Amino acid sequence: METTATDRPALEPLQLRAAFGQFPTGVTVITTCAPDGRKVGLTANSFSSLSLDPPLVLWSLRKVAPSRPDFVAATHFAINILAHDQIDLSRRFATPSADKFDGVLHVDSETGGVPCLDGASARFVCRNVGHYEGGDHLLFIGQIEQFDTFGKAPLVFHAGQYRAIADHPDLFRVV
């Protein structure tokens, strides 16, 4: 007897989210410029490298996000990998507000003119090469046109909390 998707019990969204949360991620702020010139940004941990040749990255955005039209229309976006000391920026860009950039130090990229946050661990400026539907999210793919690394430890998110990276004790064990 075959089992179809409708025969399976529904997955509980909160339990599924908790299970996803067991995978530690970095924390990013994705930024762009809206067609009217406004600077737009949001916190995301759905960032991943995709390809080295060509250099591609991906990230996802909820379909109901207010900034969806701005990112869909954007020619470029920046992925700012937050440093361990940027929890406040993560929270700021995760919260709806009129101007998330008010008082935030940033520069506009040479490529695409998108805002790049000061103090990040790394950042990628990407040409927006496409977006694709994936359930309740859109997947954005960007081709990296410029990147920088700054040698700062990253901000980490795990099980619903911010975390810091520490060396594993086995690294110091003498064999």
UniProtKB/TrEMBL annotation:
Q: Which GO MF terms does the UniProt record name? A: FMN binding; riboflavin reductase (NADPH) activity
Top-level taxonomic group: Bacteria
Q: Which SMART domains match?
A: Flavin_Reduct
| Coiled-coil spans in chain | none
Query: What Pfam families does this protein's entry cite?
Result: Flavin_Reduct
Q: Which UniProt keywords apply?
A: Oxidoreductase
Flavin reductase like domain spans which residues? 20-164
Member of which family?
A: Belongs to the non-flavoprotein flavin reductase family.
Name of the protein this chain belongs to: Flavin reductase
Organism name? Burkholderia contaminans
